Amino acid sequence: RLTDGAARRFLHRLAQGLADDAQALAGRDRQKAHSALDRFLAAHDSLDALEAGTTKARSISGWSVRGRLAARDVAELAARHERRAIGLYASTLLFGEAVANALRGIVEPPPWLGKRVACVAGLCEALAGGREAREAPPENVAEDAVPPTWRACVARLHAVDERLRELRQTAGGPASPTAG
Predict the structure, then answer these.
(1) Mind listing the pLDDT tens digit for each residue in 145-173?
(2) Among 28, 31, 45, 163, whose CB has the most other CB atoms within 10 angstroms?
(3) Are 88 and 163 within 8 A, CB to CB?
């Protein structure tokens, strides 16, 4: 489990950024939105550590007979996990930027958006802690009901939620590439 710590730190930092964005939306706090964006950017270090751990796991798998037999599976799982983590990172970064941009305007965010972001932050934090999270049902809001200024935020939040669900479905959760 070479990547456990890096995966926890990565997901925790993203969860903190999402929680900051939920607070920013609740209070229309542009400074808090920029703080969230900074947290998302800081998660890049953890993503790098996660990638280094998966590379090491691939390398180590070839040093034993059992490892050689499982090398292809380890490599495939590590690659899938890496792609999902990168996708989650990109999605959260785009979401954070969309929130910061939308808060510059005068249009109020949809009243449910902050609560939805808090739910997604909770899911991310639960994944970071290796806990099962109760997922909130997706918001069934017609695109027309969302002010145009906020549509990018809603779409980007949906992408973050989807990436988290994909990561959760990965066998064994975020640290699975190094299971041995």
Answers:
(1) 899 999 999 999 999 999 998 888 763 54
(2) 163
(3) yes
